[in-house]
Amino acid sequence: MARVSSHSFAGLLPLQLNLWPAETRLLFGLIVAWSAFGLMVLASASWWISAREMGDALYTIKRQLIWLVAGWGLFFVIIRSPLRRWLRLAAPALLVGGAMIALTLVMGTTVNGASRWLVIGPIQLQPTELIKPFVVLQGATLFAHWRRLGVEQRLLWLAVFGGLILLILKQPNLSTAALTGLLLWLIALASGLPLPWLVGSAGLGGVVGTISILANEYQRLRVTSFLDPWKDPQGNGYQLVQSLLAIGSGGVTGTGYGLSTQKLMYLPIQTTDFIFAVFAEEFGFVGSLVLLLFLAIFAVVGLQVAMRARSNQTRLVAIGCTALLVGQSLMNIAVASGAMPTTGLPLPLVSYGGNSLLASLATAGLLIRCSLESSDQHA
Predict the structure, then answer these.
(1) In sequence order, what DSSP letters do the residues of 80-121 get, joined into one string?
(2) Which of 250, 207, 247 is nearest to 229 (CA)?
(3) Is 244 left (phi over 0), alpha (psi -120 to 50) or beta?
(4) What are the two backbone dihedrals, phi and then psi, of residue 242, each rounded to the nearest 5 degrees?
(5) Contact by Cβ (8 Å): 208, 199
(6) Which residues fall within 8 angstroms of residue 162, CB to CB, at 6 or more apart?
(7) pTM of this prediction?
(8) Are the C-beta atoms of 123 and 100 separated by less than 8 Å?
(9) How far is it, in rounded angstroms, from Cα 41 to Cα 276?
(10) pLDDT tens by residue, 267-315
(11) How far, in Å, CA of 232 to CA of 223, rounded?
(12) Which of 44, 147, 216, 245 shows the greatest Cβ crowding within 10 Å of its Cβ?
């Protein structure tokens, strides 16, 4: 085992950076670049609304910087700790997270018809964001050992995951419930579960999602406005119409950094769900393609980490982490561009919000840890 260098980020890294495998160094660089890119985009998207509502154009970015420091602190803690430690923590953390989601239904703060936040003093907790890394960890544990587990243990954890998804739907939060279900399904697929089980679970998920949409007017209106946002451009279709106008205004090369006009009183929630529209307006079609290429490179490197993993469990964790970061990004972009119904999913490492930032950097840290433990020299 190589010694920890006293010069490697003041001892923050488990190994000297030059001892890391090439793909791990590349992955680390991509995460740093993603974080810097997120701050840049958020600074542009937030200055006007921050100045108008808070009297300080830097209000949002300063708060995001605080969470970013905390998130990177968590990132370094994760990459310095053995993966098995986080895998042991996953089950109790998931159960605590489920209890917190249940609490949001009783005493949570409701915004736009959805109860997703617990307010503790000055801090707003969004349990559905914070549990995402633990969903990956526990899903990898379950499906990596599936064939060795008894029927009771299988059914127990399937019931826990099913209950978790139903609680998220009850908020209602269809997008996060769908992402959670899709994430578990992809991990199960990668583990080699029989195809009939996978097809059956996908069908069941579709039925549950349809019932949720039919039972919640809030979700029904989002689906109908997605199908034809121009039918009610000042009402239910307003968010998507303004997002499409922003993206269209960007043209080929964009209006230029900081020069978006849609963020000035037109585009709603421009610092979170629709932040991609601000980016697309300012950097245009070319910038959007570069972002998609970046996500593709990240996905390829993440899958390479999975392919080189020394254990099936580590491989599934790497696949889950990659799918979560890249998949959620693509879903956010799809919503902003009108390819999916409007949802409440943030763009990882870009959208404003401490809960999402912590969860995203924790997920990135787990992916780096998987890569380090797959190398010949690991801490």
Answers:
(1) TS-HHHHHHHHHHHHHHHHHHHHHHHHHPEEETTEEEEEEET
(2) 247
(3) alpha
(4) -65, -35
(5) no
(6) none
(7) 0.93
(8) no
(9) 9
(10) 988 999 999 999 999 999 999 999 999 999 999 999 999 999 999 999 9
(11) 13
(12) 44
Q: How big is the chain, counted in residues?
A: 379
Cβ contacts of 314 within 8 Å, gap of 6 or more: 83, 370, 373, 374
Cα(194)–Cα(105) distance, integer angstroms: 36
| Structural tokens at position 259 | 């020069």
Ranges of H-type helices in the chain? 22-54, 59-79, 83-107, 127-130, 132-144, 151-170, 174-191, 195-215, 217-227, 238-249, 275-307, 312-336, 354-373
Among 34, 79, 89, 10, residue whose Cα is nearest residue 375: 79
* Residue 203 CB contacts under 8 Å (≥ 6 apart), including other chains: none
* 7 confidence band (pLDDT: 50, 70, 90): very low
Structure tokens at 129: 């964001």
How far, in Å, CA of 29 to CA of 2, rounded? Answer: 22
Tell me the residue type at 64: Q
Rounded Cα distance between 197 and 186, Å, is: 13
